[in-house]
Design brief:
The complex is a heterodimer. By secondary structure, chain A is mainly α. Chain A has five helices and three strands, in the order αβααβαβα. In chain A, helix 1 crosses helix 2 and helix 1 packs across helix 5. The two termini of chain A are about 30 Å apart. In chain A, about 30% of the residues are buried. By secondary structure, chain B is an all-alpha fold. In chain B, helix 1 packs across helix 3, helix 2 packs antiparallel against helix 3 and helix 5 runs parallel beside helix 7. Classes of the chains: A mainly alpha, B mainly alpha. Chains A and B meet through helix 3 of A and helix 4, helix 6, helix 7 and helix 8 of B.
């Protein structure tokens, strides 16, 4: 399923969904569960993807600036696409989309000799 | 013997009246709770009481019962007001603190953290715990599923995270 490009992380389907969700509001910071909900993925499945994207420099993350004692819960880790990441993610998604479109066109092309 | 005979009807009468009195107490409490949830009703009853007093009906049992109910309801209203007066942040804190994540889900998340390289453990421990706290209001099996999914992907996370540590040049 992976559609690795020349550089950057593997463009698996969940990775594409995560990038699409982040690209909808590129400046908005989201934490893990929010990204899961926006991408339509089950909770607890995206941390490896986020780690991979962060390593590639497409994502930036930071801790929520709150006092855990005051809030009564641990701090959240917020993620956002980096300025370079926005462009790279758009390119990668376009490439992945083009590859899928190409594959679909190949499959739909009628084979020589077929009656339909 | 004769004294016992004279006391017996009184006792019987008391026994007969006891359920009625208990019922009266329960009614008063129930009414108080209802009134506490509806401040307008308290005001209406206050007006009714004033009217009853002007009509010289102060000693009627119904009015005594209502008086007691109003007294209880006012105390309940005060308590409710005190609770509502607590600030939004404090309220959120109370709600979050009240809802603890499932212990089993916490353990599964703990195992997932344990599989990550030691340098990254504090980060993922806090991150997973924060997400578990957000899921604390959901059903226990949803939290458990979250923990299980974390555990299923822990190997992949470990591979990604340790790859970064071993090959920093690959990061870009």
């Amino acid at each position: 399923m992976s559609m690795s490009g020349s550089s950057g992380p593997r463009m698996t389907l969940p990775t594409q969904l995560v990038l699409r969700a982040l690209l909808e509001h590129p400046t908005r910071e989201m934490y893990g569960l929010e990204i899961c909900a926006a991408a339509g993925l089950p909770s607890g499945t995206i941390h490896p993807i986020l780690a991979r994207l962060e390593q590639a420099g497409w994502l930036e993350s930071h801790w929520e600036e709150v006092d855990p004692k005051e809030k009564g819960r641990p701090r959240r880790r917020y993620y956002r696409l980096s300025p370079d990441g926005i462009e790279l993610a758009r390119d990668a998604l376009a490439r992945a989309h083009a590859a899928v479109a190409k594959l679909t066109a190949l499959r739909l092309r009628p084979t020589p000799g077929s009656t339909t | 013997m004769s004294r016992r005979r004279t006391a017996a009807p009184g006792l019987d009468r008391a026994r007969e009246l006891a359920p009625a009195l208990a019922l009266d107490r329960v009614y008063a409490r129930g009414l108080a709770c209802q009134l506490a949830l509806d401040p307008d009703l308290v005001l209406t009853l206050d007006r009714t009481r004033e009217l009853a007093l002007t009509l010289d009906l102060a000693d009627t049992p119904a009015l005594v019962c209502h008086d007691r109910a109003c007294l209880f309801s006012r105390a309940l209203l005060e308590t409710l007001k005190a609770i509502n007066a607590v600030g939004a942040a404090e309220g959120e804190r109370a709600t979050v603190a009240g809802r603890r994540p499932s212990r089993c889900a916490g353990r599964l998340a703990g195992f997932a953290v344990w599989m990550v390289p030691p340098a990254q453990r504090p980060r993922y421990r806090e991150e997973f715990r924060a997400e578990l706290y957000d899921l604390a209001g959901r059903r226990w099996w949803r939290q458990l599923a979250y923990g299980a999914r974390l555990l299923c992907r822990a190997c992949e996370l470990r591979r990604v995270v340790s790859g970064a540590a071993r090959f920093p040049a690959r990061e870009r």
